[in-house]
Write a structure and sequence with these properties.
The protein has 257 residues and is mainly alpha-helical. Helix content is 86%, strand content 0%. It has one domain.
Length: 257
């Protein structure tokens, strides 16, 4: 195939995808004042509360793993008093937002894309348009807002649980006094570190919501299209999370330090 033609096709695909994402985001912002509260609350339970066990599992395992690894290196370099800071910083800035975002991209993103794809290929959205109802305001915009808020709220809870788990694991397995760990947190970690992690998580949540919604609304081809939409949502959501993590780390670090 001609390289120029291949490049042109790639540019067209990227442009169409970016345009579709921007359109979903713009229409969601446009409908914010008129969201259906019932649908918003249902989506919050659907995406947020139902994901709580998974998020708590991520918090426990991430906190325990990170503090153990940080403790090993802190012990090696004779800096045990910094183990709490290292573990907390890693959870707040990187591992917490990133791992939670990836898991929720698989759960929330795939679920949202599959449900919207089912409504799309089944003709439900077209039927609503046929009776002069806006399906985006009724069904789509509340899902985007709910998914974003759910990821942000779950991130805050995950951070708190992970810090408690870190203190517990450090005390029982590393023999590090809890007071030393708490002093390390208090002296070296500030509200800016927590804010940076929450900003990342909120951006990841928005990316998951917009990407999965866009893919779900563009689904075609019956049941096969629903499956393809769910799979594509996970892949695209994970890529968006890694890209945002790279793009946000530098600006957030300069802004919050």
């Amino acid at each position: 195939m001609n390289p120029v033609r291949l490049l042109g096709r790639l540019v067209l695909v990227v442009s169409r995808g970016a345009g579709a994402l921007a359109l979903v985001l713009a229409r969601t912002l446009l409908h914010l004042p008129r969201l259906r509260r019932h649908e918003l609350l249902r989506a919050l339970v659907h995406f947020g509360f139902d994901s709580l066990p998974l998020s708590l599992g991520v918090a426990v395992l991430t906190g325990a793993t990170v503090v153990l690894q940080a403790g090993v290196y802190a012990e090696r370099f004779g800096a045990r008093q910094y183990a709490g800071w290292a573990g907390g910083y890693a959870v707040l800035w990187e591992f917490g937002p990133l791992l939670l975002g990836l898991l929720l991209a698989a759960r929330v993103g795939a679920r949202n894309a599959a449900e919207l794809a089912l409504l799309q290929v089944g003709g439900t959205l077209e039927g609503l348009r046929g009776i002069s109802l806006d399906p985006f305001r009724l069904l789509v915009a509340p899902r985007v807002v709910a998914a974003t808020l759910s990821v942000a709220a779950l991130a805050g809870l995950t951070f708190m649980v992970a810090v408690v788990v870190e203190a517990t694991v450090a005390f029982f397995l590393l023999r590090l006094p809890i007071r030393v760990l708490i002093d390390s947190f208090a002296d070296l970690l500030t509200w800016r570190d927590a804010l940076g992690g929450l900003c990342k998580s909120t951006a990841f949540g928005l990316a998951i919501a917009v990407v999965s919604t866009t893919i779900g609304l563009r689904a075609r081809g019956g049941a096969t299209g629903v499956g393809r939409a769910a799979a594509a949502s996970v892949v695209a959501g994970a890529f968006a999370i890694f890209a945002l993590d790279f793009a946000l780390t530098g600006p957030l670090t300069r802004w919050l330090t």
